[in-house]
Amino acid sequence: MGAAPPNPATYYQHGFDEAEVRREAEARGFARIGLIRLGVFLAGLGAAVSVVVNRGGAGGPVLIGALGLFIGLVVWHERVARRQKSAAASAAYYRRGLDRLGTAWRTGGDPGDRFRDENHLFASDLELFGPSSLFQYLSTASTETGAATLAAWLLAPAEPDTIALRQGAARELAGRPGFRHDLAVAGHQASGALDSVALRRWLESEPLGIPGWAGPAAVALAFANVTLLGAALAGGVRGIVPAVSLVLSLLVSAWVGGRVRRSLAFAGRPVRELDRLTALLRRSSEERFASPRLIELSGVWTARRGTPAWGAIGRLTLMADLADARGNQLFAPVAAVLLLGTQVGTAIERWRLRWGPDALRWLEAVGELEALASLGTLAFDRPDAVWPVVGENGGAVAIGGLAHPLLPADQAVRNDFQLGDPVRLAVVSGSNMSGKSTFLKALGVNLTLAYAGGPVVALTCNVGRFDLGASLVLRESLLEGRSRFYAEILRLKAIVTMAEASRPVLFLLDELLSGTNSHDRALGARSILEGLVSRGAIGIITTHDLALAAVADGLGARGANWHLEDQFVDGRLVFDYRLKPGVVRTSNALALMRAVGLAVEPSE
Questions:
Q1: DSSP characters for 194-207?
Q2: Which of 428, 43, 586 is nearest to 51 (CA)?
């Protein structure tokens, strides 16, 4: 038997404490080295003054020694700075883990606002993106590619075979908390998020048309320039000889200059973005996986043509560093003699044409790995979660102990629920604040997780594969001249159209058609719901209008009524949030009005 998984709270707290100790120690070391650097600099400055004043003397060796020591301290200082940054990123990771165990996660992390789509059939209704959203709770991605991959999985339910592969990978990553930590820290050590849009555009762009001879010619002319200039200075050749070589260099640079400049300008940011993948790829290559999908992903970044992914990126980064060095005023003349711009520009373009397709696969593989790590982290953080069994298209929904993933385990009220053959429609009635909307969101969010390949917060879960449609939080739009009711009927039309496409559909409708009068509401709701059921869809509606409960009765065995109730005890409302069969028999509207001090008297 394998070792029991660590307790999440203990694991995160222990990791945070250790990371903080490391961070503070590195910060003290960083400060000490800074003081030593200052002392060495001042000593070197004094030695330099002595050399100038005394025209040599004992100050020379001291100056050379101080310079060498200063350079060594700079390198050491940079290493300590990197360790300090790594410790800070590690502490932040563990702190975020502790936050997810309560409610503090809502004040940090990535809310994913950029992925919001008000026209999506369930994303806004289930609060998948934005402040205090599922994405903000779920995402541990450190690159934009990983965040976009996770968002895409939440927005588009996968097919059962894909779900099974993702489950196997996420389940394995759930049991590797150390690797998930290293993956997140490696990504966050890079400044900023990886811009996959700019990088993809560069990798996929058309060739710039730099001639194949330009690179070798630049190398040969650089060698000739250095050799002939050295020979001329030594008196071995006349000055005209290196002049001819330099003129040829100018001609070659002018011939390909425009295309080389485009290569350097176009590649600048994407090359730096790609460099951020290096730490992620290197750390991932050290892991040996067992699940089929993770094995397949690891094959993407292992050695190709004898060079691993991070090795190829390292070569590209070196080229970018050389290109940047040309901007140094002291080095610029040397760079010109070496035709460095031409050499580097052609080399970067050759790299792009050779490695571009591979780099796109590295980018996508890292994004998927981070998305899987986010799902695995949810399974680790929530021992009360289970891996759902997702069947083929259609079927039924059977969930025991359902709870909303965004509610802490000690606060969530669990419910059992089944829908499918023979019951196709469930009408959940209840008074205000009884938990009807929360129940719909709990079901919808868990199904979203299940169809993304993740765990669900339930005790048991066996579901068919459905396309989801929801109408829970539609809002009116003054700019578009659209009322909430009009927005709702447009959403209903989209759900009906989806059901007409012969795909199994599950719909979640909160307070159906509440924006119209009771007569039109009852008639319209009956027609819409009977039409959806006749097309093979299944779903749930919530209502406080008991007239809609008759819709379920009219469907016979295909309909069922459920309710959530409340009690008014000692002047306050008490809710148990337990789903029960039948129609609600209580109402709290008048009691609520009286409770806040409104004078509401029974009519004569």
A1: --HHHHHHHHHSPP
A2: 43
146 Cβ neighbours under 8 A, 6+ residues apart:
139, 187, 366, 367, 368, 369, 370, 371, 373, 374
Cα 544 to Cα 155: distance, rounded to the nearest angstrom: 30
Query: What 3-state class would DSSP assign to 575?
Result: strand
Tell me, what's the pLDDT at 501?
Answer: 86
CA distance 139 to 370: 9
Separation CA 361–CA 196 (nearest Å)? 12
Do 166 and 372 meet the contact criterion of CB atoms below 8 Å apart? yes
Q: Tell me the pTM.
A: 0.85
Alpha carbon distance 190, 82 (integer Å): 10
Rounded to whole angstroms, how far apart are CA atoms 405 and 410? 12
pLDDT of residue 481: 41
The helix (H) or strand (E) run that includes residue 9 is helix 8-54
The dihedrals phi and psi of 32, each to the nearest 5 degrees, come to -65, -45
Q: What is the pLDDT of residues 186-202, one digit of tens each?
A: 876 554 456 667 788 88
pLDDT at residue number 280: 83
Q: If we measure between CA atoms, which residue out of 127, 226, 143 comes closest to residue 192?
A: 143
Nearest CA to 13 out of 80, 133, 118, 94 is that of 94
Least Cα distance to 529 among 439, 427, 437, 430 occurs for: 427
Q: Which two tokens stand for residue 560?
A: 């069922």
Query: Cα(48)–Cα(60) distance, rounded to whole angstroms?
Result: 8
**What pLDDT, on a 0 to 100 scale, did the predictor assign at position 585?**
73
Contact assessment for residue 551 and residue 561, using Cβ atoms and an 8 Å cutoff = no
Q: Are 136 and 154 in contact (CB under 8 A)?
A: no
The amino acid at residue 432 is N
Q: What is the pLDDT of residue 228?
A: 81
So what's the pLDDT on residue 571? 63
Cα 82 from Cα 66, distance rounded (Å): 24
Stated as kind and residue range, the H or E segment containing 78 is helix 59-100
What is the amino acid identity at position 587?
A: S
Kindly give the parts of the chain with pLDDT less than 50. 1, 191-192, 476-481, 604
DSSP labels, 322-389 = HHHHTTSTTTHHHHHHTTHHHHHHHHHHHHHHHHHHHHHHHHHHHHHHHHHHHHHHHHHH-TT-B--E
All residues at 6 or more sequence positions from 332 whose CB lies less than 8 Å from its CB, including other chains: 326
Is residue 404 within 8 A of residue 440, CB to CB? The reply is no
CA distance 151 to 278: 23
Q: What pLDDT was estimated at residue 478?
A: 39
* DSSP assignment string, 39-58: HHHHHHHHHHHHHHHHTSTT
Residue 333 confidence (pLDDT): 80
Contact 12/98 with Cβ under 8 angstroms?
yes
- Closest Cα to residue 542, out of 575, 573, 584, 589? 584
